[in-house]
Design brief:
This protein has 315 residues and is of the alpha/beta class. The protein has two domains: 157 residues, Rossmann fold (3-Layer(aba) Sandwich), CATH 3.40.50; 130 residues, 3-Layer(aba) Sandwich (Rossmann fold), CATH 3.40.50.2300. Helix content is 47%, strand content 19%. The chain contains eleven helices and twelve strands. Strand 1, helix 2 and strand 2 form a beta-alpha-beta unit. Helix 3 packs parallel to helix 4 and helix 9 runs antiparallel to helix 11. It starts with 6 loop residues before the first helix and ends with a helix.
């Protein structure tokens, strides 16, 4: 399931172009004083920053439009309050990147009651939304990164999974994809621990390495964990341990290039942000919007790190 640049990169660009044409249509960019509310789960990583930047840049193509960005700082109650405030302010459309898919539902229902269209970036089960961006992305990324770990370890040995201490649909889907990827192999999960931030994950992985000196691999669910795990491997000089996961922030790509991360499944914030924003404006212009839009999975490895960095983060 490995995706690289070259033919795959061109296929990605073609699919993105087709998707954007579907969203944008061929109408002009004439706008009005529309306000888009963007509720972010947090603004701590490259993905979040670039996603918000992209949505703002799309809004700039529509004269008079503006974007209000809120930062939940990884707190579900804060995000619910953010969404409720955006609804009260009367935004014309609402884009949500959820931290907790269940906790945000009351806010979405309030938007529904006001007739405010909601665009979800990643699926929010039980929500009434206009469209969803990257509906199956979490499962696909978990499966792709799991297949990479299976390949890197030869499908044998002890491995650790780094997750979170609570349930989120998005993370559950990533783990489900990972488990499907390693099913039928001789990989044995000997440690399954939680790490929400980089420092905590580094400590957790350091402890796992002491308890299991013959560890063959580690899999992480998102960016901060990947960086923390890589730094634990670097502190102990353990380049013999394969490390994969999800997200390809610039700090992760640096660690892939230096050999401390085997590879990761990337998200594409520019693609997701543009699809979400254009869906909002298309709806506001009275044009149809599809129920969902997908973004392909892309794996970043040492062999394609520079090319994928340009594809994900380049202008």
């Amino acid at each position: 399931m490995r995706r690289t640049t070259g033919v795959a990169g061109r296929a990605f660009q073609l699919l993105l172009t087709v998707s954007l044409l579907t969203v944008c249509g061929t109408g002009n960019a004439a706008g009005t004083d529309w306000t888009i509310g963007l509720s972010m789960h947090f603004m701590r990583d490259d993905y979040a920053v670039r996603l918000a930047e992209t949505i703002r840049s799309v809004a700039a193509e529509h004269p008079g439009a503006r974007v209000i960005v809120t930062d939940a700082n990884q707190t579900a109650a804060k995000q619910l309050s953010d969404v409720e405030n955006l609804v009260v302010q009367g935004v014309d459309a609402l884009i949500i990147v959820p931290i907790d898919e269940k906790a945000i539902l009351p806010g979405i229902r309030k938007a529904n009651a006001r007739g405010i269209p909601v665009i979800a970036i990643t699926r929010i089960p039980g929500a009434n939304v206009l469209t969803t961006i990257a509906t199956n992305g979490d499962y696909a990324n978990g499966k792709a990164s799991g297949e990479l770990l299976r390949e890197a370890t030869g499908g044998r040995g002890k491995i650790a999974m780094i997750g979170i201490a609570y349930n989120l649909w998005r993370i559950d889907e990533r783990e489900r994809g990972f488990q499907d990827a390693i099913a039928g192999s001789d990989l044995e999960v000997v440690a399954r621990q939680a790490g929400d931030d980089q420092a905590r994950t580094q400590d957790v992985v350091a402890g796992i390495l002491v308890a299991h000196p013959d560890l063959a691999g580690i899999w992480c669910t998102f960016s901060n964990q990947v960086v923390g795990a890589a730094d634990a491997l670097r502190m102990t000089g353990r380049k013999d341990v394969a490390l994969t996961g999800i997200d390809a922030d610039t700090s992760i790509i640096e660690r892939i290039k230096s050999g401390w991360v085997t590879g990761t499944a990337a998200q594409f914030p520019r693609a997701q942000g543009r699809l979400a924003a254009e869906a909002a404006f298309r709806h506001l212009q009275g044009e149809p919007v599809a129920e969902s839009y997908e973004v392909p999975v892309g794996l970043v490895t040492r062999a394609n790190a520079d090319a994928m960095s340009e594809e994900i983060w380049g202008e």
